[in-house]
């Protein structure tokens, strides 16, 4: 997922739970020295084993360019916060999702780090403006919200507060991108940021469909797993819609927009796609993919789906009753909700 950085910077991770361990792996794999701060002795003892298990799984899949031991050697575990964050270019906070806990930690981090150290919160929903309110270090605090687990889902949302300096966002963006992640900068604070608002929209409709007796839980998961999810594994909803209709996304909006508006109104959400909004989406899509290249991109999409189909069929159990994409990878409990 990442190549080693040319000039590694020290990274500190505050919190030795599953998200903290995953972030330590991401940065150590990219060549950074990483210190994990964990006050609980039992968790400090568990971190090396959990890190090693994840690295071994990646090595067995052929996804490492170094030995697990070489990557793990870059990670140290400390009990004291001041020691852990000393000299760090970026501090990744991974503590429980409680505002009072985060505010306390960031007050300590501000006092223990220099004026250029990036202070990043893994928060799923608490905006940086709430965490940083009244703190002297507010101008270098932002949310850096990952998918779960970060070493397998590279996307990370950078959500600055109105007080966060642009240079801090730029430094964070460069560090995450250099570590093989896919950072996106959210233009303004909204609850749930991008990841959970998109995920929440799907979950709200899924729950409503079960409630209304339209489909079972398994039926809905099958539609996502064998349909929408298969496409969304390599392209997003805008590109999907753009490639689904000849003429691109404006043609798709013309044909499907009224139906989607009726579906939204049925749920009490009157939020139609206005001509101005469609024009803006069309402008951004055409900047990414000129319409004369539409056919080539459709061919690319079909090839990717063929590759996925081949991979899933090759790995599927040899039973007639097995689903086309079996539930082979089930998540264990995590300390994060994405």
From TrEMBL:
Extract the ranges annotated as region (Disordered): 313-338
InterPro entries under this entry?
Answer: 3-OHacyl-CoA_DH_CS, 3-OHacyl-CoA_DH_NAD-bd, 3HC_DH_C, 6-PGluconate_DH-like_C_sf, 6PGD_dom2, NAD(P)-bd_dom_sf
Instruction: Say if the entry is tagged with keyword Metal-binding.
Output: no
A UniProt-annotated Pfam family: 3HCDH
Q: Which domain of life is it from?
A: Bacteria
Give the EC number(s) under which this enzyme is classified: 1.1.1.35
Family the entry assigns: Belongs to the 3-hydroxyacyl-CoA dehydrogenase family.
Stated name of the protein: 3-hydroxyacyl-CoA dehydrogenase
Q: What taxonomic ancestry is recorded?
A: Bacteria, Bacillati, Actinomycetota, Actinomycetes, Micrococcales
């Amino acid at each position: 997922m990442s190549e080693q950085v040319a000039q590694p910077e020290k990274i500190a991770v505050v919190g030795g739970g599953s998200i903290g361990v995953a972030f330590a792996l991401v940065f150590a794999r990219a060549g950074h020295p990483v210190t994990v701060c964990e006050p609980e002795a039992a968790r400090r003892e568990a971190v090396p084993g959990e890190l090693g298990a994840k690295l071994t799984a990646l090595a067995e899949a052929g996804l490492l360019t170094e030995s697990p031991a070489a990557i793990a050697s870059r990670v140290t575990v400390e009990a004291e916060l001041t020691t852990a964050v000393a000299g760090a270019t970026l501090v990744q906070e991974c503590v429980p999702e409680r505002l009072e806990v985060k505010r306390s930690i960031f007050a300590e981090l501000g006092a223990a780090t220099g004026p250029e150290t990036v202070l990043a919160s893994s928060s799923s929903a608490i905006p940086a403006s709430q965490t940083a309110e009244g703190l002297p270090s507010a101008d270098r605090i932002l949310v850096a919200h990952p998918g779960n687990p970060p070493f397998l889902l590279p996307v990370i949302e950078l959500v600055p507060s109105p007080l966060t300096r642009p240079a801090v966002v730029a430094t964070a963006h460069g560090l995450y991108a250099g570590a093989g992640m896919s950072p996106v900068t959210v233009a303004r604070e909204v609850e749930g940021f991008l990841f959970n608002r998109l995920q929440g929209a799907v979950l709200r409709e899924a729950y409503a469909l079960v409630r209304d007796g339209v489909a079972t839980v398994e039926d809905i998961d099958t539609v996502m797993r064998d349909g929408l999810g298969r496409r969304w594994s390599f392209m997003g909803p805008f590109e999907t819609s753009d490639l689904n209709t000849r003429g691109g996304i404006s043609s798709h909006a013309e044909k499907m927009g009224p139906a989607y508006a009726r579906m939204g109104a049925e749920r009490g959400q009157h939020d139609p796609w206005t001509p101005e909004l469609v024009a803006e989406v069309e402008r951004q899509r055409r900047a990414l993919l000129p319409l004369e290249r539409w056919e080539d991109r459709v061919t690319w999409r079909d090839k990717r789906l063929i590759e996925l189909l081949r991979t899933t069929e090759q790995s599927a159990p040899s039973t007639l009753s097995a689903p086309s994409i079996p539930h082979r990878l089930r998540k264990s409990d995590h300390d994060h909700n994405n």
